[in-house]
Amino acid sequence: MKPAPARETPDTAATAANPARRPETPVGSGGPGQEAPADRARPGREARVSYGSPPVPRAARAGHKRQEEPGGTGEPSRVAGRPLAGGSGWNDDGAGAEHGVRPAPALGDEERGRLLSGAHHAPHDLLGAHPVRGGVLFRCLRPYARSVTVAAAGLRARLRAEGDGLFSGVLPLREIPDYRLLVTYEDAELELHDPYRFLPTLGELDLHLIGEGRHEELWRALGAHPMTHQGVAGTRFTVWAPNALGVRLTGDFTYWDGTALPMRSLGGSGVWELFLPGVGEGALYKFEITRPDGGHCLRADPMARRTECPPATASVVHASHHRWGDAAWLARREGGRVHELPFSVYEVHLPSWRPGLTYRQLAQQLPAYVKDLGFTHVELMPVAEHPFGGSWGYQVTGFYAPTARLGTPDDFKYLVDALHQAGIGVLVDWVPAHFPKDAWALAEFDGRPLYEPADPLRAAHPDWGTLEFDYGRTEVRNFLVANAVYWCEEFHIDGLRVDAVASMLYLDYSREPGQWTPNAHGGRENLDAVAFLQEMNATVYRRCPGVITIAEESTAWDGVTRATHHVGPSGFGGLGFGLKWNMGWMHDSLSYLAHEPVHRAYHHHEMTFSMVYAYSENYVLPISHDEVVHGKRALVSKMPGDWWQQRANHRAYLGFMWAHPGKQLLFMGQEFAQGAEWSEAHGPDWWLLDPSYSAEPDHRGVRDLVRDLNQVYAATPALWQRDTDPEGFSWIEGDAREDNVFAFLRFDADGSPLLAISNFSPVVRQDYRIGTPEAVPVWREVLNTDDGRYGGGGVANAEPLKAEPTGWHGRPASILPVLPPLATIWLRPA
């Protein structure tokens, strides 16, 4: 990943981009991060219960409060039914304004102030219904209401106004009834279940696991979950904010005023909870947090499983209704061994692959395209929600939500399902290394550093203007480990490619002396990050059989793909990844290809050095998005020479890459030799494949080669079955620097070979003797990147090549193939 351009992050930028949004109303006493989302009601949104007043002028709302001071007039309270204890003053016919409703004991100034300011940790102790001497005390907080009436079977009693939106009274009841609240505003009356009559929705086990940082299904405990609780349908809202003085819930169901819905703190867990009856799927919400300094800020839900479409920033209540159809795929995956199977990856940026397509529309096109080209997997650049499209998804604010730009979470599941049913695995880029500083997201979430380290030097990521995670905090580590499991289990993802691992592993990453603090042993290794990565990998592999994790790690860290319990020379256990991007191979080989052929002799080792360490880790050979942006030029444009030579180099390189030990990854657009750098604004240059374009055959030919590479690769176990076994590879000619020639053998588990020969010079080499194993008497050409169908010159070995008993290259036999210019050929036993 590379740094993206600077961007606007405040909600003011979002409002400017979307004039339809109402101006946001401050909810706190000022200070950094204070903001409030607009009323984002959408035409056609499903009807749902409202917990706030209709939008009326603030002055009028204040008037509503004042006219309901104690002693105000209004309709009489009515309590019908059998006489109850403490019934003095009872009047069954309802005569008299307050008959049957006695004043409740007044709240103390301190508790009243905390409740009204959003700084109370136990609002359920004050609000709701509570048995008291002589009856049941009812109290509710309904700002801007004219009146509140308790209604139950045989009971209808109007509460007394206490001011500031508080209404209360003591009814002469023996027990708490199954009641509702009738809340009257200036132009509406709402009938609601009282949220403060419900027991907590989280159990002791959930809270214990959260406290230990071991809740592997954290998304089931935190966030917004539609459910039925105590026989009533609604949504449970929970959030971890241990430093908050109080948390209130706000959303489109309160007209973005959170005063009426303070949440309760569940012991010492740092978790705040509220069950809200009548609110369900599609509701927009945020958490209004009272910071330790007494100020207020609005935060999106870190555990939100659905979000508004950027630039809007609210979280959305979501429940999945997708029915999976990929059971056969998952069964095959569980029994497979990724390292010993074909694995060629097409890397995709979904928003720009076919700009304008939704997840469901992509499901109609992407699986067919990838299957036609023969790739075994797609790797999706980050799909988690992110506010700025120019970050390509690498600056995440919604770690549990697929981006809403392309549809809903169920729409994304539909796409994954379609890919699986087409026989294509799905890898997703995952970004646990850092997060942006947007004031409505994770930064200083509850008023203090929470997800990031408290030390500003440790918190600030030096490269991308973001914040690093505090891997030493158990709850933060749990948030990330559970997130990895979430994508694999909830979305059936087949693998996670973990971005920017090196920046996590080193305390001095991109930092100068004096800008970092050594670990407890005086070293530069981030021990907390090491422990996190080990835990994440161990958990994913234990819970999700067949899933693969892949590290983008650009240094020589020891044991990236070694098991976590195997301690290496560095004293660390392995990180536990399944595969690692081979960044060294990528940089060296591209450097070699960038030279004119006449100069390549002096850089020959750049193509052979990778085999010195090829089996130190389990590798992926990546030609990724990072190599075709920011002035690096597209793959074909890196090549020297004229247009024909550039394409020939491009094709020869792909042939060399597919034969080299390791798995393959190719970024979109490079499969048809797009000459321009990739841009997220318009995606691949598909017009190059338009038959009306004169150079279309040049680009179609390269794409045809990629298809044939994948087909021959999949049918040739020698190219993938022993990718991690040194016995599966043998050099034949690795030092023909003056000729620019490379030749090597690959072997499958039974010893059957494939011979790959690359000629990176622009001349035809006739009868170029190559040593071969004695056991193969005849070889035939199965792939030639110079084939005329691919746009090459058509120099080929049309007839089988018989081995001669002439020893060469230390082999007992040899053959005399013709080597096309700037080309790679593959030979197999005839």
From TrEMBL:
Job of this protein: Catalyzes the formation of the alpha-1,6-glucosidic linkages in glycogen by scission of a 1,4-alpha-linked oligosaccharide from growing alpha-1,4-glucan chains and the subsequent attachment of the oligosaccharide to the alpha-1,6 position.
InterPro entries: A-amylase/branching_C, Branching_enzy, GH13_cat_dom, GlgB, GlgB_N, GlgB_N_E_set_prok, Glyco_hydro_13_N
PANTHER family: 1,4-ALPHA-GLUCAN-BRANCHING ENZYME
Disordered as annotated region, ranges: 1-108
Keyword terms of this UniProt record: Carbohydrate metabolism, Glycogen biosynthesis, Glycogen metabolism, Glycosyltransferase, Transferase
Reaction it catalyzes: Transfers a segment of a (1->4)-alpha-D-glucan chain to a primary hydroxy group in a similar glucan chain
Pathway: Glycan biosynthesis; glycogen biosynthesis
Documented EC number(s): 2.4.1.18
Family: Belongs to the glycosyl hydrolase 13 family. GlgB subfamily.
Keyword Cell membrane: no
Gene label: glgB
Keyword set includes Transmembrane: no
Biased composition annotated in UniProt, kind: Basic and acidic residues: 37-48
Protein name (record): 1,4-alpha-glucan branching enzyme GlgB
Active site per UniProt: 499 (nucleophile), 552 (proton donor)
GO molecular function: 1,4-alpha-glucan branching enzyme activity
Subunit structure: Monomer.
